[in-house]
């Protein structure tokens, strides 16, 4: 077996074959939701569309979008395309509003998810020789299960530690000889910090040589730093509850964009305001996904809220023919509008990490106390600094940010381990205290 591919045939299909599969599957999906899902039946009819109107992939743009709000307002079972007794599993994300976004799986879905996840993990170099530790939680959150299903299919030795209990995680890595891990980006930070507290040098004392990181955007500077600290290769895996979870694609060893498994997902990038497909090459916009093989809950043109861009359709040197997208730079809703400048907190991270004395832990707060938007960036230093060093660093970082964004935030360099840590789930890096 070729260890670089999970399914060499599927992953290296000629582009025209992929398009043919996509069209056939798109037509099947539209037919299924038209027949079985009242929500889509109503939407398609309102647009005067019948499944037979889909005769080429260019008809995709005529189909209606599905938003997160649509999924929520159809909670719990409004978007189910199969009888409930065929469902074998549910996952959901709760979001900030409290109304869940569910995803249901039939056995066919479990098989598809395992397949795309196995392809992704294999692209990251995971084989059956690996001891694979899963640090995202195995529960309603999709993170743990997505990795579990892929690694199970590959036949790796799975260590399903789930989230939290960080000291024990590090001990287990040493005791069982973990070689690969999956984690949320901020949790990799936490693991690093706790390992150091325990006197463990990850590069020297642990055998973890590969991390598959998802669920939070991270900067290239973060990747470079963590790769060095652990002497490992770091892969970026996109995914969300609505597309199963981690596994819809991954960056290959060349780390140049994320391959999306196009026989399972049909992707577009649209202007988040107008919903029109972006026209310029590499123009950023919102990722829109139509699921081509989901059984229980297929989605047409799902507005993911993730910001990215399409690579041109050229081939990647790794041999995979599936189209690449840029690494997710943030969420449409997380975009910070500050004094007329739009940006994502992850851009700030990349600027912070250019300063070797600053750590990966930071919080960005925006307030409007004085009537004008003010930004306060608190970032931890890597060691205790004297007041002069601290001021020097604060000024340097202010300058770096000003050069990029043309505004100067208040920068506070704080002592190591003084900002709040997250053991389970995603870190809260941005706090908006503005009065609207
Ligand atoms: Zn590639």
From TrEMBL:
Q: What is this protein called?
A: Phenylacetate--CoA ligase
Q: Please tell me whether the keyword Ligase is annotated for this protein.
A: yes
GO BP: phenylacetate catabolic process
Q: What is the superkingdom listed in this entry's lineage?
A: Archaea
AMP-dependent ligase C-terminal domain location is 340-434
Instruction: Identify the CDD domains for this entry.
Output: PaaK (cd05913)
The annotated subunit structure for this chain is: Monomer.
Q: By its UniProt entry, which InterPro entries does this protein fall under?
A: AMP-bd_C_sf, AMP-dep_Lig_C, AMP-dep_synth/lig_dom, ANL_N_sf, PA_CoA_ligase
Cross-referenced Pfam families, in alphabetical order?
Answer: AMP-binding (PF00501), AMP-binding_C_2 (PF14535)
Which keywords belong to this entry? Ligase, Nucleotide-binding
């Amino acid at each position: 077996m070729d260890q670089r591919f999970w399914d060499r045939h599927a992953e290296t299909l000629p582009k025209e074959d992929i398009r043919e599969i996509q069209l056939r599957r798109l037509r099947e999906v539209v037919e299924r939701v038209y027949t079985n899902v009242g929500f889509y039946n109503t939407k398609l009819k309102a647009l005067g569309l019948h499944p037979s109107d889909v005769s080429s992939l260019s008809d995709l743009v005529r189909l209606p979008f599905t938003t997160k709000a649509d999924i929520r307002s159809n909670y719990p079972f409004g978007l189910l395309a199969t009888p409930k007794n065929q469902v074998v599993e549910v996952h959901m994300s709760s979001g900030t509003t409290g109304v869940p976004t569910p995803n249901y799986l039939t056995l066919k879905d479990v098989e598809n998810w395992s397949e795309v996840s196995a392809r992704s993990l294999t692209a990251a170099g995971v084989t059956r020789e690996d001891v694979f530790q899963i640090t995202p939680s195995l529960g309603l959150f999709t993170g743990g299960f997505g990795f579990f299903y892929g690694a199970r299919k590959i036949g790796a030795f799975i260590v399903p530690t789930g989230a939290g209990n960080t000291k024990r995680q590090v001990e287990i890595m040493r005791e069982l000889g973990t070689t690969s891990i999956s984690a949320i980006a901020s949790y990799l930070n936490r693991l690093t910090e706790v390992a150091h507290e325990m006197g463990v040098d990850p590069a020297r004392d642990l055998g973890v040589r590969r991390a598959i990181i998802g669920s939070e955007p991270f900067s290239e500077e973060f990747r470079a730093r963590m790769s060095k600290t652990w002497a490992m290769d770091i892969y970026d895996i996109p995914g969300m509850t609505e597309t199963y979870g981690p596994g819809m694609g991954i960056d290959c060893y060349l780390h140049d964009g994320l391959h999306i498994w196009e026989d399972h997902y049909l992707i577009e990038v649209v202007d988040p305001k107008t919903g029109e497909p972006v026209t310029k090459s590499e123009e950023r916009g919102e990722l829109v996904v139509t699921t081509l093989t989901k059984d229980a809950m297929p989605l047409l043109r799902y507005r993911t809220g993730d910001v990215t861009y399409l690579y041109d359709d050229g081939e990647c040197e790794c041999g995979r023919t599936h189209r690449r997208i840029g690494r997710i730079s943030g969420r449409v809703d997380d975009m910070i509008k500050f004094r007329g400048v739009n940006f994502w907190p992850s851009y700030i991270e990349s600027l912070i990490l250019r300063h070797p004395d600053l750590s990966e832990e930071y919080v960005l707060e925006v307030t409007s106390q004085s009537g004008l938007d003010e930004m306060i960036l608190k970032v931890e230093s890597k060691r205790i600094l004297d007041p002069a060093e601290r001021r020097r660093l604060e000024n340097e970082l202010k300058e770096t940010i000003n050069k990029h964004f043309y505004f100067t935030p208040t920068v506070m360099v704080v002592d190591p381990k003084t900002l709040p840590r997250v053991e389970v789930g995603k870190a809260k890096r941005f706090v908006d205290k503005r009065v609207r």
